[in-house]
Amino acid sequence: MNENYLHFLWKNKRLPLTNLYTVDRQRVEILHVGMHNPDSGPDFFNGKIVLDEITHSGNIEMHVKSSDWNLHKHQFDPAYSNVILHVVYEHDELIFVEGIPLPTVELKQLIDWDHFNWFNKYYKGGSVLLCETFLEEVPEVTVVNQVERAFFQRMKRKAGELEALYQSRKMSFREVLFHTISKAFGMKVNQLPFQELAVGIPFEKFIRATQKQKMAIAFGVGGFLEENRESTYHRELKKEWEFQRYRLKLKSGNAYSWKFKGCRPGGFPTQRLAQFAAFVHEMNWESDTWYLSAKELLIIMQEKLMRPADVYWTTHFDFGKEKKTASNMSAETANTVILNSVVPFLWWLSDRLSDDSYRNKAFEILELLPPEKNEKITSWKHAVVKAANALESQGLIELTNEFCAKKKCLDCVIVNTVLKRN
Prior knowledge:
Layout: H1 3-11, E1 20-21, E2 27-32, E3 35-36, E4 44-51, E5 54-65, H2 68-71, E6 83-90, E7 96-97, E8 100-101, E9 104-106, H3 113-123, H4 140-169, H5 173-185, H6 191-200, H7 203-207, H8 211-221, H9 232-248, H10 269-282, H11 294-306, H12 311-315, E10 316-318, E11 321-322, H13 331-340, H14 342-353, H15 356-368, H16 375-382, H17 390-404, H18 413-421
Parallel strand pairs: 5-6, 6-9
Antiparallel strand pairs: 1-2, 2-4, 3-4, 4-5, 7-8, 10-11
Helix pairs in contact: 4-14, 4-17, 5-6, 5-13, 8-9, 8-10, 11-13, 14-15
């Protein structure tokens, strides 16, 4: 037995809720099972029961065994002081809350074992998409509903991160964008060093610098100009860095925090740093940029991201190491940067200014962009769910990361639709 299955039974009311009894034979009627809580704290919030002809409102906690209450240290956590009912598979220990016995219902005799075995086989599957084999049984509208729900959750989470950044550092709107774009340039592998880079760079002075100065500051703060290299270009940047470091009181980071492994040469951190410095130089950081139409904004951002960093970085992927063929940022990479920076920034700006026009612009950009190409999207494609645009692929990515990978199946309408049929 496992708690996930107990949660499923309770949440979907697959129990005789009007005819349950506590372990000491008191009849208990469930008026409301409560709201399922996937995070820390009691399993179901704001439940309502009738016990001994008295109506009680509060939280409901579930365990495989009664003794798990003490095993999980709930007796020391005030978050559990308002629990009105303990629902367990097996009652093996009387639990007290503030010296009063906690009403407990045992489910052992109520389990449909055929259904449990089916659920358990599904839940312990090796695939990230545990519901893959059942998706064809699910109505398309149910899948669309869950993908949209995951998308909105993703945007809310990302906007929340930007709000926390804005509040913690008391920065301007355009500096929030600068930090967001910097993080996006790091992709998955080098997000952290790019975030540290943005913190170490004085934004207002950086955007007013020349392109060569920006290159020197970016590589210097990134830690790439501390050692000597057999490269004339490196020596020129190092000389400029020494001047800017003294003038702006900058600190050099740790070059070893940047990861080359797992990146293709075109995605090496040296390439991304050069492209970042060039983009910041080309970018119009004034607020009038955001009054453009979604299509105009998207085209401008793509052009600036895909523009050559400079002659050196068009033909080199690292200091002193030439490329076989000249190249710049690809359209696919540029779109990924936009998805992970401009879109959440517009969403956050909409919340902060209470202006839906920015959110609508984010929607339009997402609908204009093609779906991402990665393992997560491919997995859904194999499972007959195909993203038509970036909005849908963002929803599928969130669904994979925050629901499937974490096995939060009971919070997914797709899985609940399948389980209710069996």
